[in-house]
Amino acid sequence: MVTLKMLKPYYIKAEKNFVRIILAYQYFSVMMNNKVFQFIPVESNEIRVNRRTEKIENIDAVFAFQNGKEIVNVPMVKLITLPEFLEQIEKIAKPYYFSTQDGSDLNDKETIDSFMKELERKNILRLIDKALDERDETRFIELTDVLASMDKEQENSP
């Protein structure tokens, strides 16, 4: 039996019709037979969600997971049977859908600006994580300064 342990996107790319959730090593893991298997980008490395229908499009994708020397392949069709997997995908992709719950359209400039700022912030946070992983103190300081200035700018805006 497969259960989701963790699912965080490495980065998210919103295209015209799709939201591409790109996955990386330490951001996606599952539990099988009481063992944690970490995602490895051997076969598929993304989840593609249609922005209009809000459905996963690449259901033929197969994801590879590794625990030590043991590698297992889990097809998307198996993952989409897991409620926690679908909940995470919905939570990740929802801001990029064409229509929001209140029925308003994402063409509103203010809403787009807000989404862009949030995406920029998430990307800075991921780059900070990467700098920490690589123990790059200079890059870490630069990025935290950028993040601090973004936060300060947001506080000062109406």
TrEMBL record:
Transmembrane segments: none annotated. It comes from the Bacteria. Residues 115-147 form the IDEAL domain. InterPro entries: IDEAL_dom (IPR014957), Virus_scaffolding_prot_C (IPR027393). This is IDEAL domain-containing protein.
